[in-house]
Design goal:
Elements (H helix, E strand, L loop, with lengths): L14 H13 L4 E2 L10 E7 L7 H9 L7 E7 L18 H14 L9 E7 L5 H12 L2 H4 L20 H5 L4 H4 L8 H14 L15
Length: 221
């Protein structure tokens, strides 16, 4: 007589399920042009989508081109916490900060600084959320979508390291998409744009996009 499969009761307060509710709320938000955001208040998480003609990103771009009002595969996922949060200081309520808007503006400026990308090909979703849920929501988004600019073409979210710290290697994102003035001061990488593009192709071939962009109602979150 075969044993019955063990049924694990659903726990809505399990950390994974709480995180899934945050991530689901993000992918259900309205889509905005990354280059056309108006000022808003809040800290939280966001996803950036690409739908342009760059050959290396075709497997990511083409599904997003199919429905421009509802892109499904983010090329980058990030978070924006209120000023002082990383240092353990008392932080303001999430609706009193412009951290999320400011972070998305920085990303738009990074894209606009390069000739290899067009800001009109980028859209985004963002979610203002209490600071305690920000890291969990971001980590689940990255785990599900394996965004290229988080895991392969790294460095998109980097900041200017400042004078005297340019002896480090140029971020891979800037090697692929040169243009940010501070990154051009860093040491040149050995990898060429073609090298990184080949790595992107291999990565995409080995990592199929998820069957659904949603989190709720599935066990394989």
């Amino acid at each position: 007589m075969s044993k019955s499969a063990e049924i694990i009761p659903f726990n809505p307060l399990d950390k994974k399920n709480l995180g899934a509710s945050v991530a689901e709320a993000l992918v259900s938000q309205p889509v905005h042009q990354l280059g056309g955001l108006t000022t808003f208040f809040g800290s939280g998480i966001y996803a950036i989508y690409y739908r342009g003609p760059h050959v290396a990103y075709g497997p990511v771009s083409k599904p997003n081109q199919a429905d421009k009002d509802n892109p499904t595969i983010p090329i980058y996922v990030g978070k924006a916490v209120p000023q002082g949060a990383r240092k353990g200081k008392v932080i303001p309520a999430p609706t009193k900060s412009k951290a999320l808007f400011g972070r998305l503006q920085e990303h738009a400026e990074s894209i606009q600084a390069t000739d290899t990308l067009d800001i009109s090909d980028f859209t985004c979703r963002y979610l203002v959320v209490d600071e305690i849920w920000i890291p969990l929501g971001e980590s689940l988004m990255i785990a599900k979508f394996s965004p290229l600019w988080n895991l392969v073409v790294e460095g998109f979210g980097n900041h200017d390291p400042g004078s005297g710290r340019y002896n480090g290697l140029r971020p891979r994102w800037d090697a692929m998409h040169p243009g940010r003035s501070w990154a051009m001061k860093c040491r040149q990488r050995e990898e060429s744009q073609s090298d990184i593009a080949r790595e992107v192709g291999s990565y995409l071939a080995a990592n199929a996009p998820p069957e659904t962009p949603h989190f709720i109602g599935r066990q394989d979150l």
